[in-house]
Amino acid sequence: MKLQTLGWALVFATGAAHAGGRFAVHDAWIRAMPPGATMAAGYATLSNDGDTPVTILTAQSDTFRNVTLHETLVSGDVSKMREVHRLVVAPGATIKLEPGGRHLMLMSPRHDIVAGDKVGITFLLRDGTRVDTWFDVTAPDAPAGD
Ligand SMILES: [Cu+2]
Description:
By secondary structure, the chain is mainly beta. Helices cover 14% and strands 51% of the residues. Bound molecules: copper (II) ion.
């Protein structure tokens, strides 16, 4: 019992400082938007190399007025999107944000987004950690995932 208490104390003491180190964002990209478009989607691979779950609450960007986590639900030939209020990355797991699945919904850009740009996006974790990342803007006709 005593050992277990000590274990938790260590987790709390070091958890916040290390959360950003075990949560990582790879291969982050946004498809370039046609001029005047008000909506784009962000894709990335999210990984958790730690031994406790990482909970993502939301994301923010200086480039877009509104950023939310979305999932795509397909029923028959109808495809709908809905907001996800938290996304848990299990220890050792990766989650792909990809076309046709979960994605960042990026709304109301403050300026046009063109291929070659980099867009700063910050993930907010439940433990209070903010994880700053860069998303590459790719040409509109680039194959998904490139
Ligand atoms: Cu969406």
